[in-house]
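Below is a typical protein record.
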Amino acid sequence: MRRPPLLATLTAILTALAAVFSAAPGASATPIAIRGGDTLYGDGTRCTVSFNARGGGTYYGIIAGHCAGTGTTWYADAARTVPVGTTAGNGLVRYTNTALSYPGEINLGGGAVQDITGAAAPRYGQSVCHLGRSGGLRCGRVTGLNLTINYGGDIVTGLFRTDACTEAGDAGGPTFSGTTALGVIVGGSGNCSFGGTTFHQPITEFLAAHGLSLY
């Protein structure tokens, strides 16, 4: 029996949808990549990857030091269905999922990325940008070097300061100048509505202490 045109069209649509939903669960047309600026999800917490690094043939994600002890297994999604790796020490996640890719880039959002090719110590007056989970991409200049602050009751030394603003939740985000990594957001004062300053941990010291390099 000949179907009316509308019914035939609806039948074709339903058949196509059935094929889609019967596909293997978790199938994806594109691989998942973890970049600097992306969020990892641990056991009841979430932390930002500042940069991807490698050492001894292994790839790592650098995160804020206070995140390292809060989750042993880390995931790429909030539902915690795509494992990424495990805590490998203070401020490090060892990537173990070989189905994912770990480019040496920063995810700026909206499909834009910033390639990172190396690391250097910050210079006074240098133009910099940082990327925070809450404040987004903010830029400014280095306004202080080798500073000491009281951060959450802990005395932290060797930091540098910028006049780029920050928001709560930005800690752990990457700080960079062009293709050069400079540091990791530690904290700040003020906010992005009224202005403020941000403190950063230099990345070169961290890389040297763990025998890592950026790529």
Q: What stands out?
A: Residues 39-95 form a domain with the Thrombin, subunit H fold (CATH 2.40.10.10).
